[in-house]
Amino acid sequence: MQKRWVVKDAPDAAKVQKIVDSLNIGATLAAILCQRDICTFDEAKAFFRPSLEDLHDPFLLKDMDRAVNRLVEALRQQERILIYGDYDVDGTTSVALVYGFLQSYFQDRIEYYIPDRYAEGYGISFQGIDWAQENGYSLIISLDCGVKSIDKIAYANTKGIDFIICDHHLPDDELPQAVAVLDAKRADCPYPYKELAGCGVGFKFMQAFCQHQGINEEPLFELLDLVVVSIAADIVPITGENRILAYHGLQRLNNGVLRPGLQALKELAELRSELDITQIVFGFAPRINAAGRMGDAKRSVAMLLAKTKEEADEMVKKINVSNSERRGHDTSITKEALQMIEEDDFLRSARSTVLFKENWHKGVVGIVASRCIEKYYRPTIILTESNGKATGSARSVHGFDVHQAIVACADLLDQFGGHMYAAGLTLPVENVPAFRARFEQIVVNTILEEQLVPMVEIDMPLELSQIRPNFFNILKQMEPFGPGNMAPVFMSTCVYDTGSARVVGDAHLKLRLTQDGETFFDAIAFGMAEYYPRIQKGIPFDVCYCVEENVFRGTTTLQLRIKDIRFA
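Above: the chain sequence. Below: its structure as C-alpha cells.
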C-alpha cells in the first residue's frame, strides 16, 4: 500500500541553538528535541532523567481524599473488599497491582473479579455486583472501567455496596453515584496529567493510600513493572507522568528480578534482549489479552501474581493455548472479512468498513478490524452477535476520531465507549444496516482525503554518514518510545544496496545500504520483498527509517529499520 511521506516542520532556529548550547549536542538532535517541545535545559533534564520525585501529588485527583478515607474505613472495620477490573491487559495489570499491594493489609478479606467477556460484557456487570453481595463484599474498587456505569452503581447502592471507581476513559456529563470517581478526564478534575492508563490510576490510588497511612512507597514502586505493561499495551501517550512511570517500570523489568509470570512470558515469546515498549506490545500483550479473549481473564491475573516459576509456567502454558486458539480465529475471520469487502462493490469503494456476521468470535473482532485496515486503510468496525445483540470493536486511521463518529450514531446504539482510535459498541441486530449507512455518511462528510492514505511522519532528512555511535547513544536516551514520543524517523535520499540484498522469510528484505560508498549500514525492511528486483539491479532509491541496535551472535551493531521505500 502506497504511503504518504510527511516531513515535520523545522523547529525555530533560535530554540534549536539554545538546546545546542545548553546540552552541547548537534543541531539534528537538538531539533528532534524541539519537535517534542523540549526547548530548555530543565525540560531536557526532566526528559532524559525521568524522576519519581516529579510524580504529581495523587490527591490532586478529584475525589482522592474520599477514596482513601473509604479504603481506610474498610481497613479499620475489617470489611471485605473486591478488586474488579476489565479483561484486557490494562484491566488485569490494574487488578494485579491493587490486589497484590492491598493483600498484605486485608489478607483473606480481599478478592479480585474479572467479568466474563461473553456472559457479562465490558465493564461493571449486574452479575458481578450480585456475586459481591452473595459473598459478603461491602466495597468494590473498579479498575479501568466504571465511569459510565451509572445504572450498575445505582444498583450496587441498593445492595449496600460502595464503589470506588478508578478509570481513565472519557466520562459522560453525568457521573455514577459512587463514593469516589477517580478519573483525570472528569471535567472538574484539576489533575495536571490527563493520559494515565487505568493501571496508572490504580497506582495513584495506592500512592495516596501510602501517603495517608505513612507507608513506605518503595514496595509500591516495585510494582511499576505492571504499570509499564499497561501503558504499552493500552497505547496511551508516553509523555509527562506516563513517561516517568514507563521509564522506571522498564528499569524494574530489565535491572530487577522479573516477577515469575513475566519471566515465563519472556521465555515463551523468546525475548532475549533488553525489554522495551515494542517488545511488551508484541511479546507480552497478545498473550495476556488472550485469556480474556478466549476464556477466563482471571488466569492472566493469577499468572501476574504467581509467586513461583513453577506456578507461573503452568499458568503461561494455559494462556499460550488460548493465544494459539486466538490466532486461529484471527486468521480465519480476517480472511473471511477481507473476502466480504472484495466481493462487494459498495464495500470496496466505501470510505469506511462496517461488517457484521453473527458467528464471528467476539474475542478477536478488534484484531480483525486492525487487520482490515492494513489492507483497506479507513475507519473500520467489525461486529458479531452476542446475547442477541450486535457487538464489536472499531479501529481508526491516523487523525480520524472514530469515537466521535460513533457518538453521532448514539440513537442507534445500546452502549458504546472508547478513544479516538479504538472503541467498542453494542446495538440491536436490526439496527446494523441503518448504523452502517449512517456511519459511512459521517465518515464521508468528515474524513480528509489524506487520512485515507497511510502516513509516514518523518522527523527530518539525514545523511547516513551522520549516524555515529554518539549520535545513536543520545537517541537511545530518548526512550521509552511510544505514542507522543515515537522513535525518530529519518529520510535518506539516493541510497543503494551494495549487492547483498536478499529476501528473508516470505516477504522481508535484508539490505546493506550506502549513500557515498564509504558509510555502510545493514537494514531490515519488513514486508517489502516486492522491491527486491529493482534494488538488486542497483537502482538508487529513497528510504525512511529508524535507527536501532541489532544483536547477532553476541555482537551489537547499528541497523536501519526501514519504514518505507520510494523509487524516483
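The mean pLDDT is 93.
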